[in-house]
């Protein structure tokens, strides 16, 4: 949730001027999340990281209105550290503070103060350690941290530097950036490496600190690059190992577009060299656009992988609220076990999850529209 909020805020900061009437909806979505994070961090020395027992919740197929599983809360504390989740919340609050700065200065300052407190007094010092150790089986095997917590700490410090220009955060980034693995095409809820390099390259585009790694990210994903570390399906979809592949195609495409904006207007610096292949900013946009076009229907199946877009899109989404009848249609309570009949139904979901992007097709552009296949849905 915190990573999603950070990305939504980054999107507004980069592209808000093009969002038209949807910009207000973006503000509302961000504030819904940041209000929650303010509550989750309101007790000094405590960060509430999760509500609900994951085993009990995964066992039940219920509507949100009918949920009767225990709402157990789990917090990271000094004795149960959780640098990843604490730092990502700090990043979300710092990025969002810039979104609200122009029209709600008081709220913006509140978000920034809380972000600073979390990163300096909690994530780096008191709570330094992985939340998969601090919270154990509550976190794993659901959202294990495979990349450690140092990338989240640097990511949060980078956002706080962007929001405050304070040398403390910049110094933290530069002192610790070499402690994270050099995996240039990794970016998502668990790995921030490529995002860090792209975000900070704007500040030091003519420097040898982050620009080379940002360029290596480009070379790791461009189809024509001799050093690419991703693959492409016959239809042109970017692929990385693991389920829910669209998370990679969308996140990496976002970084390509952002970096292309940073590169424009810098003369020879704007060219990325992947060995003997030269890549200009317009090529980055072209590749990202190709991914978006694929997702929206320009693919061998002719299917849009965004629900509600076009005439052909997934109808059996692995989503409780979408697959169960609405309260209007079925006002009676549907308990934990009763929901399973709707999960197993061969009928399409009665409620369209409009705007949702599914996990996507396999490496051969084949897609299985099935609720049980959660890796694709």
From TrEMBL:
GO molecular function: cellulase activity
Organism of origin: Camellia sinensis (Tea plant)
Keywords, comma-separated and alphabetical: Carbohydrate metabolism, Cellulose degradation, Glycosidase, Hydrolase, Polysaccharide degradation
A GO BP annotation: cellulose catabolic process
EC class name: hydrolase
PROSITE patterns listed in its UniProt record: GH9_2 (PS00592)
Family according to the record: Belongs to the glycosyl hydrolase 9 (cellulase E) family.
EC number: 3.2.1.4
SUPFAM superfamilies assigned: Six-hairpin glycosidases
Location of the active site: 318
Annotated protein name in UniProt: Endoglucanase
Catalyzed chemical reaction(s): Endohydrolysis of (1->4)-beta-D-glucosidic linkages in cellulose, lichenin and cereal beta-D-glucans
Residue ranges constituting the Glycoside hydrolase family domain according to the UniProt record: 1-376
Superkingdom, taxonomy of origin: Eukaryota
């Amino acid at each position: 949730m915190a990573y999603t909020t950070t990305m939504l805020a980054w999107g507004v900061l980069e592209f808000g001027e093009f969002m038209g009437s949807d910009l207000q909806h973006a503000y509302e979505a961000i504030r819904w999340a940041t209000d929650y994070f303010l509550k989750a961090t309101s007790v000094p020395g405590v960060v509430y990281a999760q509500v609900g027992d994951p085993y009990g919740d995964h066992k039940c197929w219920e509507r949100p209105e009918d949920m009767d599983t225990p709402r157990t809360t789990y917090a990271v504390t000094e004795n149960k550290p959780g640098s990843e989740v604490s730092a990502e919340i700090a990043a979300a609050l710092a990025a969002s503070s810039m979104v609200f700065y122009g029209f709600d200065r008081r709220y913006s300052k509140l978000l920034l103060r809380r972000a600073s407190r979390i990163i300096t007094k909690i994530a780096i010092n008191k709570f330094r350690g992985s939340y998969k150790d601090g919270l154990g089986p509550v976190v794993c095997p659901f959202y294990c941290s495979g990349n450690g917590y140092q990338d989240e700490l640097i990511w949060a410090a980078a956002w706080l530097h962007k929001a405050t220009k304070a040398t403390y955060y910049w110094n933290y980034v530069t002192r610790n950036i070499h402690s994270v693995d050099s995996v240039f095409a990794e970016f998502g809820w668990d790995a921030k490496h490529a995002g860090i390099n792209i975000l900070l390259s704007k500040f030091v585009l003519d420097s040898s600190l982050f620009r080379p790694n940002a360029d290596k990210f480009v070379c790791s994903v461009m189809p024509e690059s001799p050093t690419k570390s991703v693959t492409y399906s016959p239809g042109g979809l970017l692929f990385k190992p693991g389920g829910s592949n669209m998370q990679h195609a969308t996140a990496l495409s976002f970084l390509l577009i952002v970096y292309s904006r940073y590169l424009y207007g810098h003369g020879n610096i704007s060219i990325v060299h992947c060995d003997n292949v030269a890549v200009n900013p317009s090529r980055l946009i072209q590749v990202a656009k190709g991914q978006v076009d694929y997702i929206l229907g320009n693919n061998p199946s002719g299917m849009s992988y965004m629900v509600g877009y076009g005439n052909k899109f997934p109808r059996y989404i692995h989503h409780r609220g979408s697959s169960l009848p609405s309260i209007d249609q079925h006002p009676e309570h549907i308990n934990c076990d009763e929901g399973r009949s709707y999960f197993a139904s061969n009928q399409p979901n009665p409620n369209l999850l409009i705007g949702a992007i599914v996990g996507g097709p396999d490496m051969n552009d084949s897609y299985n529209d099935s609720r049980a296949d959660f890796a694709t849905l």
